[in-house]
Amino acid sequence: MRIVGGKFAGRNLTSPNDFRVRPTAEPVRVGLIKMLGDELKSARILDLFAGTGALGLEALSRGARYVDFVEFGPASLHALKANIAALRVREKTKVFKKDALPWAAALEADRYDIAFADPPYGSKMLDRLIETWQVTKYSRVLAVEHATDHILPVGYDKRIFEDTAVTLYRHAPPPETKPVVDPRMVPFTPNGPAPLG
């Protein structure tokens, strides 16, 4: 497992020696990063059920301001801390050895820009986490990874990667980006090209 893009592209990450831990697959991480686009730059990131920290560290590699990781499993915590140390990003990260559900439920509104969540597939923890987010809106975007057959509330965007799905929930629209205008497509009027903007 490795960081796919950005400052730390190609750097390998440690995985825990625990068959119950399922790190986010590379194609899924790439797809999720594309869904978020420029929103990662300078973002405040929360990585719930962080595991190895692959999602949060990928975000840091691509310009996020900082990442708070929440993880409870001993094997995952060991791998997570090793990955943070290997990339030398301790000053931009905090690790909370906590149960993700009550920890997230205690957050105030708009504490983060983007929250990642990847709980065990098939568990009701994800449903409870989404319910909590819908009440408190502790992040502008909630990005959840789940099995394709896990029925969830409709989100802002959803992509499927074989047996894995990623759903984005938003309580605020994405930052405005000015559309790129192809000069060959400028509308014409009887008096010449129409003014842009």
What does this structure look like?
The chain is α/β, with parallel strands linked by helices and 197 residues long. The chain has one domain (26-193): Vaccinia Virus protein VP39 (Rossmann fold), CATH 3.40.50.150. Helices cover 26% and strands 23% of the residues. The chain has helices spanning 26-36, 54-61, 74-87, 100-105, 125-136; strands at 44-48, 66-70, 93-96, 112-117, 139-147, 157-161, 164-170, 188-189, 192-193. β1 (44-48), α2 (54-61) and β2 form a beta-alpha-beta unit. Mean pLDDT is 84; it is low at 177-189.
Indicate the low-confidence ranges by residue numbers. 177-189
Shape: globular
| Helix percentage range | 25-40%
Main pleated sheet: 7 strands, mixed
- CATH architecture heading: 3-Layer(aba) Sandwich
The order of strands across the largest sheet is 3-2-1-4-5-7-6
For the record, the CATH class is: Alpha Beta
Radius of gyration using CA atoms only: 19 Å
Strand content: 15-25%
